[in-house]
Every structure is written in structure tokens, then in C-alpha cells.
Amino acid sequence: MAEAAAHEDRVVWAPRIAPGDVGVEEKEEVVQGMHDAVKEFSEVRSTTGTYGDRTIRQTFLSSEGAHVETEMTRTVAQVHFIAKAEGRITSRRVRLGATGGFELFSDVDYRQKAREAAKVTVGMLRAPSAPGGRMTVVTDPELTGVFTHEAVGHASEGDLVAAGESCLADKIGASIGSPLVTIADDSTVEGGFGSFPYDDHGLPSRRRVLVDKGVLRGFLTDRVSGFRLKRPSTGSARAESYAARALVRMTNTFMQPGDLTFDELVEDVKEGVYAVGSRGGQVDTAKGSFQFSAQEAYRIRDGEVAEPLRDVSLTGSTLETLSNIDGASREFAWGDPGYCGKGQWVPVGDGGPYLRIRDAIVGGSA
Amino acid sequence: MTRRSDLLATAERVVESAMVRKDVEGAEAFAVLDHEIGATIEKNAADLAQTHESYGIAVRVLVKGRLGFSYVTEEDEAGAAVDAAIQASRLSKKIPFAFPEPGKAKRVAGLWDSKLDAVEADAVVDAAGAVIDVVAESGDRMNATGGGVSSGTTHWAVANSAGVAVSHRQTGLTAACYVVREAEHVSTGWAHDSSTRQDVDVQEIGREAARLAASTQAPAKLSGAKVRDVVIRPHAAAELLATITLSSLSGRAVHRQESYYAGKKGDQVAAKSFGLVEDATVNGGLGSGPTDEEGVPSRPVALIEDGVLRRFLYDQATAAEYDGQTTASAVRAGGLDGRSFKAPPIVSARQIRVEAPQTSFDDLVASVDDGVLVHDLMGVHTANTVSGDFGVTSSLLFRIEDGAVGDALAPVSISGNLHESLEKGIQLGDDARRVDAGVGFVLPSVRFRGLTVTP
To answer: Is the minimum CB–CB distance between A24 and chain B shorter than 8 Å?
Structure first.
């Protein structure tokens, strides 16, 4: 394994409001509140709400002398709903989650968030399918985050790089995209869904720069892949539970903002698509191709966001797409918290600015 | 290992102990012991054999018409699970529920292979090594970068206060290989196979993955987005059907208006030639078993027959809630990939048979003038399972021109609506394979008409 200091530490990330001190009725109220908000729309036919909180106490000991004890809490609530009208049917999920406690529900107006999602989803019901083909696409911060995670994050995972399954394998120091692209993974983000004080090899949390102004600067590594790649661990070892071995995983992955406003991004797009939110995605890290689907989408016509489009998916080559980014907004946001699957599921955060991508491939009807 | 033979006795004891508790009207215990030995392939080396054993007891109690659930991982903590389940019942809603009565189950052969029960870690590592060797011998710059071989056993038992006392055991073997060929272009190949018996040709997995990597090394580019016929290989086709069609046939989804099929019982929802049958009594099926995981005997259920929507899938709780009848479709979370006792049963298809006009694989291809042959699909999980709309990517595919398989193609996006595809009618080849798509299938390649293919 890659050399690393043996740490002795005890860290408690105490939530402002411990979920254990909150009655089950109040927790039910969160789910009920999100349910009621989406049910304000008559097209919403069915909802499934869930609430969960989890306090994790973990001790890491090694024969090298490490002794790290950590305690942290994650809280999450979501509502999934189905909307129907005129023979059309669609679904949507709204999720709130953080590394923290019940304060999440006073910090965020969850009812309003659910209501807005329902309003947009209902509007999408009557939308036509997207036109398929290559066009300019503007992504919102959540979708930018998912692209960053799927296309760049996974390909920079040291275990995949060492296995020969990454299109970024021999590209450290090389330009892999537009100078507007700066990407980092940061497990120290306060409240971030993927944050932790120590990784599952007992190494401290940190910020890891992957791409700096278009140039590939690093990979994510644990001590095993670090050894194979002759690089130090970046503290990226995460295991789903005690019953699984730690793998190289992302934490909170994001693209840095740029200097344009949203209006400036859109105004010189003659014909394109504005894609918002994510239904998830997948990537072939070896070939460097990706696929993800948007929650909602709109046509862009003559520099204006126009009518809605349903079921838009984006695909493409990672490197080509990174080179085709020609604008990023100064506004930055984290998307809905997610769970990343790689044989094991771990909580992650993704975020970024609004992004403009030229010549992106939109899946839809021809 | 003494726990293995005692699973049913343990489950019955837990039920007895629950039934003496105040207000408990019914109880069920599910005890499970999983054992797995696995070797992973990482860059031409068989790496880290791991053995994994998990044991657990899941408890459901019915208290004043409300179901409560809990689980523990140690036998002597079963009392705590009963306490927690009783407490949890207070939060759930009242349904007209009764635990299932015992029934006569048909024997299902081919689910247990004593050779797999006796497999040692060395043999699993050797098998992974054999896959790697085959890949290395298959040509220059061929790297087996991922995959592995794993072998395992599952023993479970379920008992309830209505008299169900069922135990079951099953073996499993899985081999998978991901090949990356780094020449002028990077090309990849992927193959896998699963079985309940030791009849997986692990070397063939390596050969198949290497063949795909070799044959896709100089992909041509398709020009322009166009509606085309698409022939999809068994694994990818099964994933599409499981994700969209089967999830829409769950009684829960239907009654909650979360399914395209809600309100369509008796309607023509697919071409007359199309049928879909849940049948977990198929010998050796990856999702087969004499009973479901509530102990209800398996039997064939025609879900779609001659294109007409006939039945939905139910477990006991969903049937009780929506006035249906169980179709022996209770699984303990997630189906084939890792049974878990950590959640109450959910409704899922277990072993599916697809009925459609069948021809040879060659004739299937020959019937396509301008289309693609697809080996993999990425992003199926992002499909809109309710509307049936999907937009996925394939990066292992070939052109079909004038009825013949031609050049490998660069990745494309494929989109369409699966419900509409079934209405138009699908056609099957004769290259049927066992497939684990979360649901067990025996499925050949499938031709779909009129999907949008975008380069």
C-alpha cells in the first residue's frame, strides 16, 4: 500500500439538532409536508415519501498504529411522485439530504422545493419529445454536477486508472478540456452529503483538485491504487459498510463557476436545449463515453428559453464534451444529494455552475 | 456453521416467542445465511479472494391489524427484533392482512449443486486466472481489466403463525470479464454468465469479451440521427424489459397509479404475438424456487397473454392492501443480486419467460435492412419507467445492412418508448441465455422496431 501517516484522532461531527432528540411525529411531518405540497397539483396521482437519519460511529485501527474514531450523522428525506394528464404520465423525485441533523428541514423550505418540482413536472406532461441530434446544450448546476461526477470523476478513480479502464490514464499534465474547466472533489464541504472527517483507510479528509483550467492534475486514490500508480493516497477510500472492502470513491465533486450570467450563456444560442436536473447517468470510463438523463428540459430558441421538452438524455465522449464547453456561469449550486453505485452505494454530492456545451448529443426522437 | 441446519427451527422459535406477546395477532420470521467466495480480476491479475458470510433474522408481526418489521444479525438477539417490530407496527397503517397459509409447492430441480457448495477459495482464484489467460492468449494488447468469478450458497427458512414452515437452499456461480484493448483506438469487450450450477464456461467468458474488443477496434461512425430497427443481445434486452415493463406490472405500482398499466387490465397492451409469463418453477432458473420468500408456492402466472394485459404481481401485503391475490412474488429486497433480510419483502417478478415470434439469430438479422446490433446498453436505470421513454447509450455495437452484420460502430444514443415497442411487436432469435437482470430470464436476442439511433 502507498505510504501514509498513522493518525490518532477522535472527531465528532455533532449535528445542530440531533435526530434522536426529535419525535417521530415531527419526522412524519416532513414527509407529509412534501406530500401535501406536490398534491396541490391535481395531476399528481401518487406519491411515496421517505425519511431517514443515521448516526455512524466508526473506529479504525491498524497494525501501523492508526486509531481514528469518528461520529457523524446523515439525514435525508424525499418524495417521489407520479403525474398524469391526457394520457401522458411521468415521474419525479425531490430529495433533501445533508451530513448533519434535523436542522436540514429548518434551513431549507422543503415544501416549496417539492411544490416547485411538482409545478414544473406537471408542465412537462404536455411537452413534446426532444429533437434528437447534435446541438448546443445549457445545463443547470445539478446536471453540470452529474456530468462532472459521471464523466470526469469516475474516469479519475485510481482503481479504474490502475486497471487500465480510464480514458484519462496517461493524461496527467495534459490538456483534457476547455480552460473553463476546473474540477475538484472535496470531502470537507460543510454539510455536504458526501463529506466525512476520515476516509475508510484512516486518512484525513481533504480537497482534491482533478482538473485545473482544463489540465488534468490528479486522480482520486486510496492506499491500494496509490501504490499501483506510485502516487500518495488522496484519502478517497470509502466502504458502503463494515461488510464491504473500501474502494476509491468520490465525495462531493464539483466544477468551479465561471464569469457569465445565465442570460449571457443563453443569449447567443440560436437553437439548443436547456437541460435541468438529473435522473441519473452512467459512464464507460475506458472509452470515455457517458449517458445521463435530465429531469426537465426546454428548447432554446434565438437566445431565449422557450417551450418545455420531455425525456431529454445527453450522451457523448467525455474529452470531446470537455473541449466543447464554452461558457460557465458565476452562479454555483449543489444539486440534490445522490447515491453513487459502484457495486456498493455511498452518499455523494455533485454541483457546479450553469454550463454551455457546443455540439452535444441529445437523445430524443429524430 | 451449526446455524445452517437450524434456520427453520430458529425461525419457528422466533414466531412462537412473538405470538405470546400482548396484542400480537400474527408473526413471521425469515432466517438466512449467505456464503460467498469471490476473486476479482484487476489488470490481468486475479486479485483478493474474499469470503463473505452474512446471517440474519427478519421478523414481521401483526399487531391490531398493523404490520411491523425489524431484523437482527445474531440469533440470541431475536427477542430484540420482536420488540422493535412490535414498536414499528404502531407507525404503519391498518390493512386487512393475514400471513399466508401453507401450500403444496412443486419441486424445482437444478438449484443446488453440491460441487459449488464445496468450492474452495483457491478454485475460484484459479477460475479467474483461467479467464485472464484466455484473454492474454487471444491477441496483442488485450487486457482483462475487470470482472471476476464468485461462487456462493444461500440457505433460508421462513415460518409464520399460520403454519408456513419452508426452507430453501440454492447455489450460484457468476463469471464476468471486462477487456480493454489499447491499440490505435481503445476498444472494450464485456461478457458475463451466471448459473445455479457449476456449468459456466469461464474461459468462454474471457474469449467472448476478447472477441468483442477485437471486433470493435476500428469503429465506423454512423451518419445522422435516424429511426432504425435495433437487435439487442439478451443481457441488455432483459435489463430493458425488467426495468420498464416488469416494474410496471407490480400490483403496488398499478394500484398506486404509478404504472403505465394502471386501469388497463383486459386491454391490448402489446402485439397479439407477445406474451410475458412469470414462472419460478422453471428448473435451474436464476430466479426460480419452489416458493417465494413468504413461503407461498410458486406457479406460472400469465401477465400478458396474446398481447392482452391479464395479471399483476403481488406479495401477501400488497394483495391484502389492494384486494388482490398473492402471485408468490415476495422477494427480500432487490431480488437476485444479494438477498437481504434487512427490509420487508417487496413485490418483484422472479423468473420471466418472454413469448414472441421466434426465428434463428441469422434470420433475425437478415430481416433488418438498416439497423444496429447492440451488445450493451448504458443508462437503462435512467429510463422513465412510468411513461416507458428511454434514452440510452450503446458502445458495443455493429451496423446491420441489408440483412448482414457489418462494421463495428462508434457509440450511439438509442431512444424510444418500450411500451410502444411492445405494441409494435418484437421478434426473438434462437440464442437464448440465462440472464440475471435483477429478475431471472431465459432470453434470446430481441429485435425492436423503430428506435431512434443517434451517432
So the answer is: yes
